[in-house]
Amino acid sequence: MRRRWLAAAAASLVILAARAEPQSPPVALDQSMIRVVSQGNELFAMREAPVAYSRLEQMSAGLNAAGSTYAAPVRVVRVSPPQEIDYLFCVTTGGTLVLGERIHTRAAGDRRYVFERGAIVRSYPSLNVAEGWLWLVDVPLSRETTVTLQLRAPAQWPLASVSVTMANVP
Predict the structure, then answer these.
(1) 3-state SS string over the chain?
(2) Are 72 and 82 in contact (CB under 8 A)?
(3) Buried b / exposed e across 87-115, counting CB within 10 Å, b at 16+?
């Protein structure tokens, strides 16, 4: 009788130990994207981001075209007012990163976003590093959170893409 009790107790301990094993950390579903959330707003950034433009004239025309089909390397989705803000990149021959934005809004009750406006909003001279060009880009996400992205590329023109990493998450 005592052996059965000891066997049952040992089996219970084995089952409890198996349940108490630490779980492996969750794996992100899409390793190609950076995602940050603050106050319901979301920022999505491609880790290998396309540089859509190599000339300012191209960028200016493309930002204001309602039917533009470029994939946004950085997108901010705002809760209030409901907006999608797409940020597009241009790198000039001298290594200056020019940031353009395309704003899409949604009226209350609508499901679709509609193009509102596009504009060139900022430019960033490159920081000289041994690997080539480096830019630090601040993207406002909410009243309390600004996300700083590090963009890197070899110092050659024209650029097809830049590598994007997080510099900090406040």
Answers:
(1) CHHHHHHHHHHHHHHHHHHHCCCCCCCCCCCCEEEEEECCEEEEEECEEECCECCHHHHHHHHCCCCCCCCCCEEEEECCCCEEEEEEEEECCCCCEEEEEEEEECCCCCCCCEEEEEEEEEEECCEEECCEEEEEEEEECCCCCEEEEEEEECCCCCCCEEEEEEEECC
(2) no
(3) bbbbbbeebebbbbbbbbbbeeeeeeeeb
- Structure confidence at residue 10 as a pLDDT band (50, 70, 90): very low
Matching residue, tokens 């406006």: 117
Give the separation between CA 85 and CA 76, rounded to whole angstroms: 5
pLDDT of residue 109: 81
pLDDT of residue 110: 84
3-state secondary structure 49-90: EECCECCHHHHHHHHCCCCCCCCCCEEEEECCCCEEEEEEEE
CA 158 vs CA 9, 54, 120: distances in Å: 70, 6, 19
